[in-house]
Design a protein that fits this description.
single chain; alpha+beta
Length: 91
């Protein structure tokens, strides 16, 4: 398992699941939530923005592309909500 918060540039290792830290506004209220997503789903969603990295099996998203994916990043849904993560890992 690995984490990726607020669509910042990051290296994405090959793992089973990712915890995404989403932050967006809904009805004039800031919403912070964590979403558990399968690796394959994450890669499929961002396949055009990710590039191969020097570490075996890893992908990377560079700063110029990370800024463009913010809206898509915050729209990723999962049936497995993990609302307890924000209290453990500050966002």
């Amino acid at each position: 398992m690995a984490s990726w918060f607020q669509h910042i540039p990051t290296i994405i290792p090959p793992v089973d699941f990712f915890v995404l830290g989403e932050e967006y506004y809904s009805w004039f209220k800031k919403v912070k939530e964590s979403v558990l997503v399968e690796y394959a789903s994450l890669i499929k969603t961002f396949e055009t923005d990710l590039e191969a990295y020097d570490l075996e099996g890893c992908k990377i998203i560079y700063p110029d592309k990370a800024g463009r994916i913010g809206k898509t990043f915050n729209l990723i849904n999962s049936t497995m909500k993990t609302n307890f993560f924000p209290s453990i890992v500050p966002m």
